Protein 1
Amino acid sequence: MNDETTRGSRTLPTGERSLSLRREGRAPVKIDILRRMIRTGAHGRAQKLIERVHSADIAELFPNLSPGEQRTLIDLLYNTARAGKTLRELPEEILPEVLALIDDAKLAAIVARVEPDDGAYFIEGLPEDRRPSVLTLLDTKKRHEVERVLGSPEESAGSFMTTRIATVLDDITCEAALERLRTLGDQVEDVFYVYATNADGMLTGVVPMRRLLLSPPGTLIRDAMIPDPVSVHEDADQEEAAELVAKYNLLAIPVVDGEGKILGAITVDDVIDVIQEEATEDMYRMVGLGEEDRVFSPLSLSLRKRLPWMILNLATAFLAASVVGVFQDAIREAVALAVFMPVVAGMGGNVGTQTLTVVTRAIAIGELELTSVAKAVVKQVTIGIGIGGVTGLLTALAGYFWAGKPIFGLILFLAMAINMAMAGLAGAAVPLVLRRFRQDPAMGSGVIVTTFTDVCGFFTFLALASAFIEQLR
Amino acid sequence: MNDETTRGSRTLPTGERSLSLRREGRAPVKIDILRRMIRTGAHGRAQKLIERVHSADIAELFPNLSPGEQRTLIDLLYNTARAGKTLRELPEEILPEVLALIDDAKLAAIVARVEPDDGAYFIEGLPEDRRPSVLTLLDTKKRHEVERVLGSPEESAGSFMTTRIATVLDDITCEAALERLRTLGDQVEDVFYVYATNADGMLTGVVPMRRLLLSPPGTLIRDAMIPDPVSVHEDADQEEAAELVAKYNLLAIPVVDGEGKILGAITVDDVIDVIQEEATEDMYRMVGLGEEDRVFSPLSLSLRKRLPWMILNLATAFLAASVVGVFQDAIREAVALAVFMPVVAGMGGNVGTQTLTVVTRAIAIGELELTSVAKAVVKQVTIGIGIGGVTGLLTALAGYFWAGKPIFGLILFLAMAINMAMAGLAGAAVPLVLRRFRQDPAMGSGVIVTTFTDVCGFFTFLALASAFIEQLR
């Protein structure tokens, strides 16, 4: 079976013969065996071994092999026409170093054998100056296809659709459509939907495989199809396509151009990747991490990505510290203020972060449609007041026992309640405002909210204390 | 078309006629129209309106309707046999209040018309004391099916599989299998895979629809099938099933019992729901939120869920504060300590939270397989030292200018570097240790890490300062 030319099996179960390796034991053991085979030159046996493993499992071996071993493994995969499929399963962050081990001619041969979107994905993994030398080795048709994908907006529907779909005219019969499907054979990636078009290529409907099989053979496609199906524009964001597939429980969503002509389809397996990527992105952005910063990415990359963000963080920390600095005379006179000020600021930070998480996640999975924005904000502020009231009371008692002054407890209570109400407001408002201005609602929101709760917490607490400093001495 | 009895259309595109409503405008406008129709008793027109909208869109209307309007809408949906499908699309948190509006007889009729797993999902949405009265109204066969699902472990593969799959004996021909598929018709939910079994019902292989269509009619299933397919045990966690579907790009995964007999299959649309749920869960657990705490859930629920957690948080804040308390004499003598101590603790918290996010996400999406655990921890600690070194230097300069004493800068630098190294260690180790002890790696990890960085930050900084207090005065 030639996996390279039937990318379709990406959406089918395990194109490979068996998964026994995955089942027999954990990967590390197998790597040792494979590594030994590669080292001792037992390439025939290594080839037999990897033929029995799914591409997704082979991809996991790469980060644990030396460059030389990686090169041998690629050759073995290439010989069985599985190099493209396996490279496709590599994490995006690891791809460039593996591609660097493959020479231009071999890489062009791999690109020629995969779908244009996968080919474009490999080209994008190359340094800019190497791209033309690989592209020129492709035949004209393939090069144009790949360049079209490279030219579409990044993360757009058009850039990760498959063009190997089954389309039929809507005025033929179901029998004729089934016959056409048999003729198309392996040229089609997904055979769970057949897309119906008019004579101009405009998408008019979709026929699920089930209906095609069950309809009387003479039924016209037009009468069997679901008219006016959900579709997505080629320039739409991949996230929009993923949301539609998730919401309407689709297996694939057709991609159309501005005139409604069908260009391709996005399959559900790619949608799962997008959903996982977007979830990672949201979690990462809230704490100011770059997407490429993974457990396995090089140390230097993590440092380079995080340092500027941390220096920005430091600036906001100085801002909060300068608020404390303004009130240093009060602290000198009543040092209990220094003891309790992290409690006020920290608890506000917790409320803010929780609210931020609820609202950001609601925006991401479309839950905000289920309530009004104003209602959501009011609710979060009320929660802040409620939690601030209860924990403020407990803190007030602790403060009273510590300092022996009722007024200190009262100041603590007020500062906690005010800061947590503000934390609820900031946690809800920051992602909503970012979204309103068409920014990513998660972008750096964590640091904005905690800076706000720090500044607000220190200020409320220390300003109140300064006002009553006579009683606190 | 009867959606209630063809749950299959959940995996097919838009079982309904058209999505024009969704396209024409935003939901709020439509709710107003629908509400007016319901209020003025124009039920015929309301029925026509909702017939043109996808169940997933109708479900979004519920939270914005009054209970009376909700009841009318359910009746309208019930009349067109779409109540079950629409209820299935409601967020889990909203379901109970809607179910409370439906009487036992009608609810039993709805449960009877849907798949056992969906029926069980509705029963689980009822208060415990109401469940038996609905179950007894079902016929014996259906009741047993639903009770079987209710009896399987929560969030297990068995509890959310469909039993409406196509199985064939592996010794028949492809032609005979296609014929059987036509006979089964609407009784089958997914027709993209046909599952092959031996005479004992044991799963022996899977035949993708494509292969069934393309194979010569006389080919035996045994020769057309992919043998030994990926499958999942009925008691396995839903997350395991989701991971396999995502990793191997499947459209469905068969569910088997201990003997390898096929019981059903989990389809990819349900897997998408699981993936989104798990991502929400991870983000929520890191900041100590309960799953039911959504933007639209009642205020009282959010307060009830968050308060105990926040009181625990307060206790950890007191712990950090008591560290400050130990050093209050030093602070009184050098108040610059109070100004800079939030910087040391806060920057440590940032490094810790970032590291925690990288490692937690890596565990969740299986990226940790790509590197060794020890290597991952060492890397994160090194990042902490690197960032601590650079930001520590900047803070040292700021401290020197503020206090006018070089020793103060040196103390700040050392405290920052040490605390951030510890933050990298804690951020990486906490989720890994939680996982080692078979706990959720995200469970409350945020508060553990930030408590650690607060205590460690305050202690390192103030203890160093106390040692050099003579020079700081």
Note: The longest strand of chain A covers residues 203-208.
Protein 2
Amino acid sequence: MSNWVLEKRSFDSKEAAADGNRFLCANGYMGLRGVVEEAGPSLFPAVTLAGVYDQYQDRWREPVNAPNSLFMQLSFNGLAMTLGETEAVSHCQTLDYRHGIFQRETDFGPVTVSSQRFVSMAETHLLADRYEMRFRSDGEMTLIAGISTDIWDINGPHLFDWQFRAGEALSAWAVTGEKRITVAAAQCVSLDFEAEETVEQRASGLFRVLKRKVKAGDTLTVSVFSGVYTSLDDADPVKAAERLSLQAKEKGFAACIRAHRDAWETIWERCEIVTEGDEAAALALHASQYHLNCIAPRHAKNLSIPARGLSGQTYKGAIFWDSEIFFFPMFVYTQPEIAKSLLRYRIETLSGALKKAAEYGYRGAFYAWESQEGGEEGCTNFNVVDVFTHRPVRTYFRDKQIHISADIAYALRSYYDITGDRTLLKDGGARVILECARFYLSRANGHVDSEQADFADVIGPDEYHERVTNNAFTNRMIRHCLESALLLKDIFADQPEAFTALLQEMEYEKDWQLLPALLGRIREPRVKNGVVEQFDGYFDLEDCFLDTVRSRLCDPREYWGGDHGVAGTTQIIKQADVIAMMALFPEAFTDPEIDVNWRYYEPRTEHGSSLSACMYALTACRVGRLDEAWDLFMRTANIDVVGGGKQWAGEIYIGGTHPASNGGAWMIAALGFAGLRMKNGKPEIHPNLPKQLKRLRFPIIAGGERLMVEVTPEGGKIVQA
Amino acid sequence: MSNWVLEKRSFDSKEAAADGNRFLCANGYMGLRGVVEEAGPSLFPAVTLAGVYDQYQDRWREPVNAPNSLFMQLSFNGLAMTLGETEAVSHCQTLDYRHGIFQRETDFGPVTVSSQRFVSMAETHLLADRYEMRFRSDGEMTLIAGISTDIWDINGPHLFDWQFRAGEALSAWAVTGEKRITVAAAQCVSLDFEAEETVEQRASGLFRVLKRKVKAGDTLTVSVFSGVYTSLDDADPVKAAERLSLQAKEKGFAACIRAHRDAWETIWERCEIVTEGDEAAALALHASQYHLNCIAPRHAKNLSIPARGLSGQTYKGAIFWDSEIFFFPMFVYTQPEIAKSLLRYRIETLSGALKKAAEYGYRGAFYAWESQEGGEEGCTNFNVVDVFTHRPVRTYFRDKQIHISADIAYALRSYYDITGDRTLLKDGGARVILECARFYLSRANGHVDSEQADFADVIGPDEYHERVTNNAFTNRMIRHCLESALLLKDIFADQPEAFTALLQEMEYEKDWQLLPALLGRIREPRVKNGVVEQFDGYFDLEDCFLDTVRSRLCDPREYWGGDHGVAGTTQIIKQADVIAMMALFPEAFTDPEIDVNWRYYEPRTEHGSSLSACMYALTACRVGRLDEAWDLFMRTANIDVVGGGKQWAGEIYIGGTHPASNGGAWMIAALGFAGLRMKNGKPEIHPNLPKQLKRLRFPIIAGGERLMVEVTPEGGKIVQA
């Protein structure tokens, strides 16, 4: 079982932010950061809600954190037992990836506190905690247990007009500033001991105060059950939260945790990658699959996943291309209903994309770079703060990263290719692809004096180079989008009238004619000695080492990109770009083509994004660079085991979990090591098993069939599950 | 005469750099900065040569400074008499604008030094100085007079392998590092006294040392005659310099200065603007006309004028659009042979423009933004240094300021319109216009899904906003360029075969068909409440006050432009842009149109370039805003009277004279106050005389006729001169 458990046997408040991510519990509805019960805002506790956003004044819109309804603070003989403040003899905390259970045990000397808690995978709105105190001396204990409204927010506050109610359950609720959404939490406790109990309403929340005398050797246990609802979930979220808390209490902690564990077992049955040969790799894969699964929107049919999951408010809780390119593959191959939810989110937010295109003077669908509810663009024009002047710096992610629409079309097409299911296309997906293609028609620039067409002034995946022309990745994705649009006619060949009617209704007839014309005109990238140029003029930039570029930094927190950044004028790139293209279109490139590009671009890549290593690993597998693939795989899969990573972009905090890497780990194992691909509606494998692994086995659903992929050094096979 | 003389009755070494510009003497071949004879490099003495460039290592290419062959250092009783180091009782220096004569008088106590010097307008290669010493006590004087090779360079050194020769003339010569051009200076002296004379060769040059005893009341005079040649002028530049020095000595100082004064009188006869009513304005106009005339390439037929004239090496001594848009008008209307030289420079450097276009993947002629000899692009990709990191910042002047080609076509067309002379067009000018138009054909981007065409990713005159789309000025200039290209057929209607042959020879037939098609497609600027939008999206930028933007500076030397600059994300602009368009196409806009745009843009303009005020003044005249026009006129015309101005862009020194303002002063007086325009080959005037002036009179040549324009408050007329 050791390869299922993350353990840390120390505490350092400087690491609390990173640990809050590594030890995250979540269930797709909410995320509970991995900090102890008594933690105050300086340790970044948070219950982050999926899909609930708020903007305070002119700050960034971001997800709303619910109050901390598992708050507990023990005092013994008047002394607070607070990790990080009170000296502790020892502290250990663990996260069980198999079942999504966080445990802590802290020996404060006179008393040892141990707890076990989870965000229920069986009950969407339930948090629960079993908190045990073992006393080593006689004395008086005071336990404060309640709902803390002292919330850590990056760009808050977001909750106003707090109200409280105390009965068998305590409850606290407030409304968001912008949209007046009610956010409510209730909690009740069950004790295995008697205590003098009072309820106190303080500035920081509503609390039960439990007091009693204890004797050395006493062990007292409190179970806390908390319901969390918003008015988006229920007309009376306070009541709903109270009801759930009481029901859970009635059921008891043991029954609640059993249901939660069973739910996790069902998830693992559908997606677990089993490996043999390397325990660290097994742990890292479990961690990756855990982190991606725990934030999947199982409770909703039209929700996607933020780039930092539910680990906090970083990146505004927004949906990026990470969803379609990095999260989507594991889900579509193992739990297609979740993949469908991610895509339904895009289908239902098409209006936001149409609006954004119009705002920039284009037609069709230009999806938000950082999409919030309703498809609203959360990305501002200023995403970086200059470390020298402290002034915001104009960045172009919002207006120039046009590949986003094609990324969505790519996933819609993949969904059809892998599941064989047309319903999503029929039910809005085809319209999305057509509107994305229409966007590119209006964005394309033809040459007045030649047949060529450019996509000028764009940003590709490598964001360090802003406002480039003919980014190879972007142009390739756009071609695929146009091809997918044209393919729709074949997909719906049995319903020609319906398809014609759709085109008519969309006033698409003229655009339909333009699609093949544009396809034939898009400028092909320059290729030099086999290397595809990342964008027009890339090869003319300064060619230098990563370390040279790094040595030019005047401040370690400087932003590397743009004209002022150290990378912007060089060939050093942030992340896979040409290589990402080759990873996404494996059949369009030969092994030698991929190899020469890999060798050119890898040393020039900072891997400054968690989206990078996975693309290099996939292509490394493809060309048999298995040692490099293994290193990149471990780097990808371990990202939330190790924690850390880039915590700052300029002066902006960007820490959190890394679902794209988590999804990337699955991709490397399944699409890289096993070489899984769809061919004419059927899965096939082309194994590239690194020497570290003796066996690799994982279930998939493809073309409607439940299958098991199994790879060993001797070869591989796909069998009925 | 007071309105012909600039006088300064003090000395401050901190002002020496600016004074060196204000007191400049020049004759188009070379410029002699206005610093005293004994000045060392810290006071920026220089003899800057026109059209001779050199690059040292990887620094900026810049003009070469010749050695200082008028160097003199007096000592009395062993004490050096050095302005700024030795205490002086008084110092006065003057510049006579009428005759281009610099005088200084310094009372050092025991001796007063006064001198009179000039760069001969009659003898291209001649410098001369008459240096007088009046002694007040007995003692021994030592005068060192010679050629100092201790040269002030911004990006030097440029001269290597010094050689010296001493005869009746002293001479020194060296070669430039890059192209091995020999630069030679010779000098000889004529004394009205006897002295012990030795010649000393030192590390800093070759010098005559003159010693003698003097008595109180003695007045001794030395006349120095110096020839300056390069191997571009003469196969044996050393001999040529020596010969000229000796000839001049033989002729004598009085004869030399007489010829020089006569030459200036001839210039003034052809161009002097006579005003009555405001002495300060008269002085400022004299200063402006002096500064522009003294750098005009009278000795050459194919030379243009650097943006900072011959006042030093600032801006790499390069030719900017200033030549065609700001210098050209005065010359074409008064001394068309000089206007012709400016344009012949462009015609003869067409190959450089063809090469630059090809380098960027375009066809036709993309002229250098900073043109050096041969049309070589002197502009680098990094023109600003970040004041915080000291790193060079990528700017886009070189690659995006595409209006330069249209500016040249505009001047070629104006030359024809004003002179009626077709020879320049016939002799290469038509080819230049056609190649410029061809460049725009290949630069234009048509919309794949509509009839519109954009000029995307450009920089207009307002350089603070980089990489914009559809800059109104640029698009308008391009339209004019295309129209001028099409008009060539009419201009050469009497020689249809020759014109057809030209098109054939240029392989232009297909492009010729595309010209009218593109003309009909160029996107018109958005107009909001009558205000023409400077570029797509300009109105969406932050609209704020100049002072607000200024208050955001963290360092006074910060560059304002680009994404990092304080202006880049606001509507604050560096200089006239939409208004420059209206000034250049006065007949295309009505008075109310100009007025509403003037009122919008003027408060949003920093006037951070010397090219700005003149455009605002011209349009202010047009709409009767004569108070504002007068203020802007005085600001423009006084720029090199007052001196100063912006001395720094980031960490780059940009001081020098301001020929564009000098030309602008003529434009305001002639085109603004008198309202001079050509209509169907004939000049006409539309006077807008400010109340400060009682009379305005100036000669012009238009349509081949010598005319006199005269304007009084009662009205104006054009009469035969």
Note: Residues 308 and 658 of chain A are 6 Å apart (CA to CA).
